[in-house]
Amino acid sequence: MKQHHRTLRFLAIALIFLFALPASAHLPVAVDGERLPSLAPMLERVTPAVVNIATKSRARIRENPLFQDPFFRRFFDLPEPRRPRPAQSLGSGVIVDAKNGYILTNHHVIDKADEITVTLQNGRELAAEVVGADPETDIAVLKVDPKTTQLMELPLGDSNKLRVGDFVVAVGNPFGLGQTVTSGIVSALGRTGLGIEGYEDFIQTDASINPGNSGGALVNLRGELVGINTAILTPAGGNIGIGFAIPSNMARQVMNQLIKYGEVRRGMLGISVQDLTPALADAFGIDVEEGVVIAQVTPNSAAEEAGLQVGDVIVAIDGQPVRHAAHIRNRIGLLRVGEAVELTVLRNGKRMQITAVIGEDTQQTDAAALSPRLAGAEFGEVPAPPGEEGKRVAIVRVEPGSPAAFAGLRQGDIILSVNRMPVTDLASLRKAISGSKGRLLLHIRRGSGAFFLLLQ
């Protein structure tokens, strides 16, 4: 009983003390007239544009294509095919065009997905479809119906204006926890040679990026999208302060092509280059520390037509300094066919400006960009067999276990026609497939024989 009275007296004293506190005892919003710094106002505009992405896919079971033939199965009294196991993954995305419902994310987030669900910050779920994806840059564009709900978009910033030391904020869905915000600085720019993607020009940041953050937003303090979070360097699967984001300018270029064409139509200049070393600079008699040396010019290419020569040293592209060979590949590979590019070149010690018009890369193309049924195959142009004129389109690579492999396509197959339309080069192949409705009827030459293959 005494203990009970003692507890009541303590509570009464505590309440009296609490009500006696002046209003100014609340956490201050300003000190000495200066408002306390906070990212909250900016994030209130940013976070509604960052979405969670959930995918479902049927895990493909690798089997010999003969096992899919009902006659073959009945003849050998084989059991029914095993059903694919459902697989799920989580990632993030950024709404960049609310009017049309376009969302930027990573290719690896939605790769091989059969169903894609986008969850907005308010919990609303929307079905999404893939507009296009580019494995080389790990960028994909999704589309949701903008009429079903009000969408908020994130403005694209200029990633070329970033400096090491700039404050940035990462927004995403780490480990499937839900939307999470972390902050840090730009640790480095122009990271290449990591072997993560085909085209690398990463922003490095110490803002915490973890599994599930992929495809999320890296924003500056103005609330502009400056990068798409895509990878981390870690020995154990968690964040150690080294994360990488695709620059917004690269993402913008890829996105525009994916929306317009459904694929990235990479241009080709037609040169092979190598980094300019101090020894090479001395041998060429030039006093520059950065640039690339042209080691080869492809005949009949855009480079040859523009007048580029072996031994030329490229020091700038469109006024931007060139530091290494990867910079040339990134810059040229993301330009559209027909675009003009201005090269600052040193030739025999003299500085000169050369303008080249980017040509089409007609050597190879990824079949997945043409049709999902051909995913896993890569087409290339080859000389016609002896006795025939012109060129032919051949399958130069088939990934084991891919849809193309299951369909029966093999490396070395020559595509003679698609849906009865003759195929003589990659341009005619693209035209024939783009005009197809539903099924694909391929006329294939394999070795000394030929046959038709129907893909439905």
Proper CATH architecture of the largest domain = Beta Barrel
CATH topology of the largest domain: Thrombin, subunit H
Note the overall shape.
flat
Count of beta strands: 30
Strand content: 35-45%
Strands ordered across the widest β-sheet: 7-6-3-4-5-9-8
Q: Tell me the Rg in angstroms.
A: 28 Å
Structural class of the helices, strands and pairings?
alpha+beta
Top-tier CATH class of the largest domain: Mainly Beta
Mean pLDDT across residues: 80
Number of DSSP helices? 10
Please tell me the total number of domains: 3
The separation of the N and C termini measures: 83 Å
Task: Classify the helix fraction into a percent range.
Answer: 10-25%
Largest sheet: 7 strands, antiparallel
Low-confidence residue ranges: 1-8, 10-25
Description of the molecule:
The chain is α+β, with helices and mostly antiparallel strands and 456 residues long. The protein has three domains: 45-262, Thrombin, subunit H, CATH 2.40.10.120; 267-360, Pdz3 Domain (Roll); 364-455, PDZ domain (Pdz3 Domain, Roll), CATH 2.30.42.10. 19% of the residues lie in helices and 36% in strands. The chain has helices at residues 2-20, 40-46, 70-75, 107-110, 248-261, 278-284, 302-306, 325-333, 403-407, 426-434; strands at residues 30-31, 34-35, 50-59, 85-97, 102-105, 115-119, 125-127, 129-134, 139-143, 167-172, 180-191, 202-205, 217-220, 225-232, 243-247, 267-268, 271-275, 292-297, 313-317, 320-321, 340-347, 350-357, 359-360, 364-366, 377-383, 391-398, 414-418, 421-422, 440-446, 449-455. A seven-stranded antiparallel sheet has the order 7-6-3-4-5-9-8. Strands 24, 25, 26, 27, 28, 29 and 30 form a seven-stranded antiparallel sheet that branches. Strands 10-11-12-15-14-13 form a six-stranded antiparallel barrel. The longest helix has 19 residues, at 2-20. The chain starts with a helix and ends with a strand. The model is unreliable at 1-8 and 10-25 (pLDDT under 50).
